[in-house]
Hints:
With 124 residues, the protein is mainly beta. It has strands spanning 3-7, 10-13, 18-25, 33-39, 46-52, 58-60, 68-73, 78-83, 92-99, 113-114, 118-123. Strands 2, 4, 5, 6, 9, 10 and 11 form a seven-stranded mixed sheet that branches. Strands 1-3-8-7 form a four-stranded antiparallel sheet, with no helix packed on it. Strand 4 and strand 5 form a beta hairpin.
Amino acid sequence: QVQLVESGGGLVQAGGSLTLSCAASGRSFRSYTMGWFRQAPGKEREFVATKNWSAGNTKYADSVKGRFTISRDYTQNTVYLQMNSLKAEDTAVYYCSAAVRTSLSENKNDYDYWGQGTQVTVSS
């Protein structure tokens, strides 16, 4: 059974940095695409970044491009989201997700597995 466990959220001042981790377990993720989404209070869950586990190609939401970086560590079976130059509007619960597909997707409905989420709060 696939399990995704996020960590690394917290409170940070605007302009600061945080790194989120997603520990993935339950099977080989070679044929998977991993994603990060976020959901602010009263808003829909929105796409942040995605990365193909094997090929390594990536895609970012325009709102985070140049500030966030998605990466993965084969040995640790972990996906990371490095977040720099954080803004108040980045405040949300961040979710790690996995899709049984090799092509990238910004659509949350294409993802099959989700973590429990980790809160990121950016104070202005």
